[in-house]
């Protein structure tokens, strides 16, 4: 049986050195993103994989560089600054 939990409870399964995929476009779960980012002090080297996400991407902020590494498959506005600063990586996935 399904038992709903809070965003804070849901992101407790994320551990240091894990890889997390964030759903693309407007489906990016902002509540979960913020709950995960709020755990930045206890998380180290979590790889965030994403295509293009709408909304905030606080995990891409420079102050969280030791906690989160952005691996973006599309260089959107919300992560462009961190990729430009060398705090993340770009993995092209589109072919001509």
Task: Give the assembly state of these chains.
Answer: single chain
Give the percentage of residues in beta strands. 15-25%
Show unreliable segments.
Answer: none
In which range does the helix fraction lie? 10-25%
Return the structural class.
alpha/beta
Topology-level CATH name: Glutaconate Coenzyme A-transferase
Task: Indicate the radius of gyration in whole angstroms.
Answer: 13 Å
Describe this entry's structure for a reader.
This protein is of the alpha/beta class. 21% of the residues lie in helices and 18% in strands. Strand 3 (68-72), helix 3 (77-84) and strand 4 (88-90) form a beta-alpha-beta unit. The longest helix is centred in the middle third of the chain and has 8 residues, at 30-37. The radius of gyration is 13 Å and the shape is globular. The mean pLDDT is 94.
Q: Keywords for this structure?
A:
96 residues; Glutaconate Coenzyme A-transferase; four-stranded parallel β-sheet; 4 strands; globular
Write the layout of secondary structure elements.
Layout: H1 7-10, E1 19-22, H2 30-37, E2 46-50, E3 68-72, H3 77-84, E4 88-90
Parallel strand pairs: 1-2, 2-3, 3-4
Would you kindly provide a brief summary of this structure?
By secondary structure, the protein is α/β, with parallel strands linked by helices.
């Amino acid at each position: 049986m399904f038992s709903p939990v809070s965003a804070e409870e849901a992101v407790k399964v994320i551990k240091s050195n894990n890889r997390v995929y964030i759903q693309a476009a407007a489906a990016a779960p902002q509540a979960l993103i913020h709950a995960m980012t709020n755990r930045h002090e206890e998380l180290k080297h979590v790889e965030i994989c994403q295509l293009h996400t709408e909304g905030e991407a606080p995990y891409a902020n420079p102050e969280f560089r030791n906690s989160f590494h952005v691996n973006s498959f599309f260089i959107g506005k919300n992560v462009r600054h961190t990729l430009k600063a060398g705090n993340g990586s770009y993995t092209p996935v589109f072919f001509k």
